[in-house]
Structures are given as structure tokens and as C-alpha cells.
Amino acid sequence: MAQAFDARAQQSVLASRAELALALAKQRGADAAEVGASVDQGIEVSVRLGEVETVELSRDQGIAVTVYVGQRKGSASSTDAGEDSIRATVEQALAIARYTGEDPASGLADAALMARDVPDLDVHHPWALSTEQAIELALECERAGRAVEGITQSEGATLSTGEGVRVYANSHGFIGTQKGSRHGLSCTLIAEDENGMQRDMDYTTARDPAALRAPADVGREAARKTRRRLGARRPPTGTFPVLFDPSLAGGLVGHLMGALAGGALYRQASFLCDSLGKPLFPAWFNLEERPMERGATASSPFDGDGVQTRSNRFIEQGKVASYMLSAYSARRLGMATTGNAGGARNLRIEAPLEPVEALLARMDRGVWVTELMGQGVNGVTGDYSRGASGFWVENGRVQYPIEEFTVAGNLEQMFANLTGLGNDLDTRGSIHTGSWLIDAMTVAGNQPSV
């Protein structure tokens, strides 16, 4: 890296800057204020066809100030964290607040809700990696993939590593700091046959570099996934069971959480308005967040309001058990915050899991989706329509790769028609899930079903 990153020292510096901003806001007449500050440093290298393409060293910092004058709110931010810049940022926030309308829901979260239990969640694992070492790991990954028979071209391999510190403070006297790290390696390859070219990729990511998969394994898996797509054709049109790969099933959970988010609910822009206590999934399905899980991707002891995070059950025995609320959205809905300013953290599904082979056998005839394209999801109605590629399944067995088709349905119906979850868990992100088998969706291919 360009220079050493002392996370402990950065925590102290950011905390003092946040305290300065709060003091300035109070001096200038703010009734309350909150400050977020962060600094991140990292390196990213990309290689292609055995040559270095890019090397990027980054160091970013920022500070954001929100002030409250009565029930008027103003926010301003800067990438310059010097004292003069902080002073100007506070003044800008106050100037904005003077011209905004009063909002009865604005203001800090209640002081009694501020985080008290702030343990080390084991999310900071720096990687003392030189640029030369990073390049060699990326080259090793691509070499392993390109060595697989049938791989004809490469879009390259990328290695990234970074660490950072964030601070949140408010005029209740709360100051929360957290340091963290994130590392990753990916590879994208191309194969070709008489029917044309196909591409696919694989990646590994972790807080701790020791948890990353070996570079050669990533390259070979990227090659395997690319080769299996050769000879793709379009599937028939009709209504079929659809199996979503784990990497895509996490997106379905993301759509669910977007519909349960307080911002969408108070705007009446969600298909799950007034859904508390109502059945949404089969009774065997439970969804929980675990923000205090050690070493996990999204662990944090406090949310974006400084509120103590806690485990929340969003789906309990198939029913909507909780919305996802910040202090502001909770006030708008006449409810209490769930400690979710900034989103949900470490979503985990509790349900019976089955081997993918068992799900395919139950499917009998249908579509296994491994890639989705487009943004055809309507959060207001729940209507879902995405371009896709994957594999055609007949008699419970994969027959051939398929592409250039659409899968469509409605999220509420899709959740209700969930018939099985795979034990092939994808744990690379903040949502851990296996494959999802949905009983019936519309598949638009090139010919009617027979």
C-alpha cells in the first residue's frame, strides 16, 4: 500500500473530528446534531492474459454532518476533514436547515437506545500485501483458469484488499467507532465452440485473507462454470418450476428486505404494506438477522442512528414478524426502531435444507437459473421479470445449458410457492442462503411448451 494504515490512530483522529463538528454545531445554534466520518485505504490490481492491466492505490475519507434546528434538518458533507472544512460543513448544514420545512419525525434516535454493548466483532484483519504479491496472486488465479482445456480467452483476474475505520457520533454523547477489512479475488473467462462464445466468472471474498479460497481454485472454478455454458440454446415457453442458484437466491432475499424497509412502507411504495402477521412464506421458513455475529460480512454493534443492534426475526414460521426500521421511518409509521438504520446485517435463513440433487428431482422438468440480467423488479406491486440463463432440467437431471429467456412472476406468489431450500449455502455475502426452488414461474423462451 502507499502508506501504513494505523487503524487505532485513525479511530482516535476521526472521533476527535466528530466531537469538533458536534461542538461547532452546538455553538452555532443547533438543537441536536450527528456526525459520520470514515477513512478507507486499499489496493486493487487487475491482470489479463498474463499481463498487468491496472494497479490502483486508493485512500478515501469523508465526513458528513446533520443538524437539527427544532424539527428542521440540514445535512452537508466533505471529503476534506481538516478543521476549516469541518467548520464550513457545519455552517452549510445549518444554512440548509433554516430553509427546510418542519418534519415531526426528524431528530436523533432516543438517547436510551444508544449502543452500550460495543464488543470487538473480529471484522478487522489487515493484509500486509505488497503490490508485487497482489499481482502474482491475480496472475496465479488467471493462469489456473486459462490452463483448463476449452478456455480460449480471458477477461482477467482482479485482487482487491482494503481496510477502513468509521465513526458515528451524536449530541447524546454517543461515539461509536469500528474498524474493518475486506478482501477479494475474482476471475472471468471465455470459452468458444461452433455455437459461439460464453463467459462466466467466480470469486472469493472475506474479512480475513486466510478465509479466501486459493487463487488456483477460483480460476479453475471460473473455467468450469464457463465451459458448462457452451452449446446453450433457448428453452421452451411455458410455466415451470424454477431453481434459483444460491448467488441469485440472495437477491430474492434482498427484494424481500427492500419491501420490508420502513422508507418504502411509509411512502406506500411496497407490496408488503400492512403485512405484519400475515403469511408470506411456507410455515417452515424463518429469516433472522444477526448483527453481532463475529467475523461476519455486515457485523456491527450499532446502526446508522447509534442504536444498539440486535437479532431480529423478520419472518417467523412463514409470517411477516417485523419490518426493518430506522428511528425516522419508525416515527413515520408510529412504531419503534428495530436498529436497522443502514439496512439489515447478516441475514440467516432457518429452514430444512436439502441436497440440490433432491431439489432437481422434485422439479422433474423445469429451469435452473444461474444468471440474471436486467432490473425488472417492481417494489410497489412485487412484479418480477428478469432476463436469465442457466440449464434445462428434464426427469430431474440437467440436460443442456439455456440462455436468452425470461423468468417472470410476482414476488409475493414466488415466496408463497417456495417448495425447498438447498444445502449449497453461499456464504460470501451478508445473506447466507442455498438454492431456492419455486414451484411455478412463467418462462419465455423460443417456443410453446409441449
UniProtKB/TrEMBL annotation:
UniProt keyword Metal-binding present: no
Recorded GO MF terms: metallopeptidase activity
Annotated ranges, domain Metalloprotease TldD/E N-terminal: 33-97
Gene3D superfamilies: PmbA/TldD superfamily
The keyword Magnesium appears for this protein: no
InterPro entries xrefs: Metalloprtase-TldD/E_C (IPR045569), Metalloprtase-TldD/E_cen_dom (IPR045570), Metalloprtase-TldD/E_N (IPR002510), PmbA (IPR047657), TldD/PmbA_N (IPR035068), TldD/PmbA_sf (IPR036059)
Keyword list, A-Z: Hydrolase, Metalloprotease, Protease
Any Pfam family: PmbA_TldD_3rd
Residues spanning the membrane: none
Domain Metalloprotease TldD/E C-terminal: 237-445
Domain spans labelled Metalloprotease TldD/E central: 125-230
Recorded superkingdom: Bacteria
Family designation: Belongs to the peptidase U62 family.
Alphabetical list of PANTHER family matching this protein: METALLOPROTEASE PMBA
Designated name of the protein: Metalloprotease PmbA
Gene: pmbA
